């Protein structure tokens, strides 16, 4: 079985056909590499809209060694293309999304078309092809959203949970994985700070000195998704237990001695992120390494989680980046940065 330093994974993907939407992104690249290293799938389908990124990805993975790889140009906005791509597929990992918070505020229609209508297309295509397991990537910004990006991802999450009401005899199962900022991913603050330091900047920009965020590595995110694929019965929202970090601490570690330049919060930003609010905690249970928000639908079998020694979280529980009990100190933060460089 697969080895992971983060989670116990007893998933067997041998002979399976897997499709990843948005597979040329940071998560998709790491997910594909992990699956190729650990398993022997029948087909591993790269579904994305950027032909250049697909070409570059094909150069990284030897086609003679990895004959299971298929490169499928397409957009999640195109339901017919998704239906064609999902033929005889066993597992779908939905990672495609528009993600930049400020861009969403200025381009709302585009985010709705990709993140909401695209999610509906993935659901419909999966139901049409009787895909057994579908897991969608979400974000901490989907919980109690204040920006358009978070609102579109909340809508997406609701679509995937409710899809379990539609599966009927197809036995298709849909679940959601929600986690925080990925260290070193494209568009994140880590490569931005790194570039400024390399260019000799005398200060690093901080939106607000009080700001905190949840952090996870790419490999940890991939392993968490694989562990959820193993456990899912359909309808759950899985949330890993991960550490928080103050943005000022990140700046101090990446640019020792550099000043902080306070630039103000960008449109749509929060001071702190939430992954579980008090309202959702009423349907949340806790395992050793994760929280699970249970769906409030008749199809849900609560007893299965209780068999895994899950416990109901306390009344009034909330899981936010500023109230977290796990904080990254300088040593752990440096370790995370090193791991992100190796990703």
With helices defined by DSSP (H or I, 4 residues minimum), what is the helix count?
12
Mean pLDDT: 93
Main structural class:
alpha/beta
Q: How large is the radius of gyration?
A: 20 Å
CATH class category of the domain at 17-180 and 216-241 and 276-319: Alpha Beta
What is the CATH superfamily label of the domain at 17-180 and 216-241 and 276-319? NAD(P)-binding Rossmann-like Domain
Largest sheet: 10 strands, mixed
Cα(first) to Cα(last) distance is 22 Å
Summarize the structure.
The chain is of the alpha/beta class. It has twelve helices and 17 strands.
How would you characterize this protein structure?
This protein has about 350 residues and is α/β, with parallel strands linked by helices. It has a domain at about 15-180 and about 215-240 and about 275-320: Rossmann fold, CATH 3.40.50.720. Helices cover about 35% and strands about 20% of the residues. The protein has twelve helices and 17 strands. The chain has helices at about 25-40, 50-60, 80-85, 100-105, 110-130, 150-160, 190-200, 220-230, 245-255, 280, 300-305, 330-340, and strands at about 15-20, 45-50, 70-75, 90-95, 135, 175, 180, 205, 210-215, 235-240, 245, 260, 275, 285, 290-295, 310, 320. The chain has a ten-stranded mixed β-sheet, with helices on both faces. The mean pLDDT is about 95.
């Amino acid at each position: 079985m697969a080895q992971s330093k983060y989670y116990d994974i007893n998933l067997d993907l041998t002979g399976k056909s897997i499709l990843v939407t948005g597979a040329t992104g940071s998560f998709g690249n790491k997910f594909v590499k992990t699956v190729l290293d650990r398993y022997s799938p029948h087909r591993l389908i790269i579904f994305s809209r950027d032909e250049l990124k697909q070409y570059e990805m094909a150069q990284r993975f030897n086609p003679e060694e990895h004959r299971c790889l298929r490169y499928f140009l397409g957009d999640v906005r195109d339901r017919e293309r998704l239906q064609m791509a999902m033929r005889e597929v066993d597992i779908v990992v939905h990672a495609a999304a528009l993600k930049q918070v400020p861009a969403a505020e200025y381009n709302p229609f585009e985010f709705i078309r990709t993140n909401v209508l695209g999610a509906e297309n993935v659901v419909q295509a999966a139901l049409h092809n009787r895909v057994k397991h579908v897991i969608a990537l979400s974000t901490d910004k989907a919980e109690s959203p204040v920006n358009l990006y978070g609102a579109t991802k909340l809508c997406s999450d609701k679509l995937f949970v409710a899809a379990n009401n539609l599966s009927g005899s197809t036995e298709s199962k849909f679940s959601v994985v929600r986690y925080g900022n990925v260290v070193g991913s494209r568009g994140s603050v880590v490569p931005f700070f790194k570039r400024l330091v390399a260019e000799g900047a005398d200060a690093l920009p901080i939106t607000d000195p009080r700001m905190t965020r949840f952090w996870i590595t790419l490999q940890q995110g991939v392993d968490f998704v694989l562990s959820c694929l193993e456990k899912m019965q359909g309808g759950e929202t899985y949330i890993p237990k991960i550490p928080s970090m103050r943005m000022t601490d990140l700046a101090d570690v990446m640019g020792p001695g550099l000043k902080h330049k306070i630039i103000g919060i960008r449109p749509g930003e929060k001071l702190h992120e939430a992954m579980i609010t008090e309202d959702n905690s009423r349907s949340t249970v806790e395992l050793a390494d994760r929280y699970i928000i249970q769906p409030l639908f008749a199809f849900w079998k609560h007893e299965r989680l209780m068999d895994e020694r899950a416990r109901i979280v306390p009344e009034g529980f909330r899981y936010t980046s500023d109230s977290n009990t796990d904080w990254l100190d300088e040593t752990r933060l440096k370790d995370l940065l090193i791991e992100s460089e190796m990703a």
